[in-house]
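Thread: Modeling a multi-component assembly for a lab meeting

Hi all, long-time lurker, first post. My supervisor asked me to bring a structural picture of a complex we are working on to next week's group meeting, and I have zero experience with this. I have the sequence lines for every component (520 residues in total). Could someone generate the structure of the whole assembly? Inputs are pasted exactly as I received them:
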Amino acid sequence: MNRPSPPAVLKVERLAKSFGELRAVDAISFHVAPGEIVGLVGPNGAGKTTTINMILGVLEPSGGRIEIEGVDLAVDRSRALAGTNFAAVYAPLPGNLTVEQNLRVFGMLYAVKNLSERIERLLVVYDLGRFRRTKAGVLSSGEQTRLGLAKAMLNLPRLLLLDEPTASIDPSNAREIRAGIAKFVDSGHCGVLWTSHNMYEVEAVCDRVLFLSHGRIVLEGDPKTLPREHGAASLDDLFVNVAQEALDERGRS
Amino acid sequence: MSRSRVGAVVLRILYLYRGSPQRIFPIFVWVVVDIALWGFLTRYLNSVSRSDFNFVPALLGAVLLWDFLTRVMQGVTMTLFEDVWSRNFLNFFATPLRTSEYLMGMVIAAVTTGLMSLLVMLVFAQVAFGLSFLTYGVALAPFLMVLFLTGISLGIAASAIVLRLGPASEWLIWPIPMLISPFAGVFYPVTVLPAWMQAVAMILPPSYVFEGMRSVVAGSPAPWDRLALGGGLALVYLVLACLFFFAMYRTVIRNGIIARYSAETLT
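Re: Modeling a multi-component assembly
Sure thing. I ran the full set together rather than chain by chain. Output:
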């Protein structure tokens, strides 16, 4: 007997954002199920970060609807974001607080239970124990990225938004972090929306990938089979083709 | 309102003060410098004046109370500036934190630093210049409350301006207390002002405080009805300042400024 699929942790319906004449995101719809990692890829300016900012509630959509675990973000932002978290290379944690202070402050913002224990656990998992009293601003970019990921896991999120999470991490650490997130997601607890320009990474971790161009989803599918279906040798080639088509289209318009 | 989230905003500020002498320094040292400067000036005026008028409570007391208002306002705005300088808005506002909780955290942080400054000023003014506010007892509390509410309102309104116009508008908001002080009759009775300035003074809660304090220092009973009017005005301004902040927050959420709040100026 088929079990009904669990409700999506993230449901985006006809989401749109315009800045004056520019339509940065153009009525896109997608969902993320629990236990699923969805890649959001596309050339610079395609609308990936705009989409993530709208899901995080820091940018008001011009139209459409965002539901996180069945809660409409526009209706109850605070409840919708309680089970969400994010990490992005462009949003480092306050550099004038120590690693431990940052985790405590953000743990309180997410009302994490047994916060001290949770912090200790994350310091071990992300190899930050020796930096606990170090100001975040003096950490290397890789260490800051690990701190951002530790913050993102504080509340055991049901929806995790990762914007180029391994961009400044060496390959060995990146592999470890990808494995850690994949393991966390495999428990079926959490769904992830993952943006990256690293197609190897997308192919390695994502169950599904959405290609965004000019604010629209132009391709969607399994990153392992999608290139073949569209006559490309690899996901990297497919990305280049999509980006080139976007450029050509822009040139024509 | 979540106590945990409000606590997080306050804890962030406490962490910053705990590890930073350069942040603690202004709380203690600048107010002492201010009291010393005005204390010696009032002493000098007492020595050259032929009247029996005592300048110490009239001028030094006024400086002390005005400094309190300024410190409270700065306490609110500094909480916001800490997030401006560390580019923390995206991190903070992508959490379940509500705008009202953020404001409450700002106010609690301002109360803490404002009261610390006040305590330092009271002790120093008493020890160095014999100005004792303690003789007024609890009667002083309503005066401080009106100034406190005004400082909070100014701080919240100034923060809303910075949120909307960007970090460079910092230069617009620091002089706000100085712009208000000529109208508020801090050092002189409002009656010496021209009619149009008196009309402005009527809508400024601090003018009722300073008029009242001068009345008390002169030995008259405190004009509680006038002070109540000042208190009512201060509450109205507080509500308006909060509404202004919420409106500006909605604007920066709509145009996306909060997510990329790092540019020198934002228009």
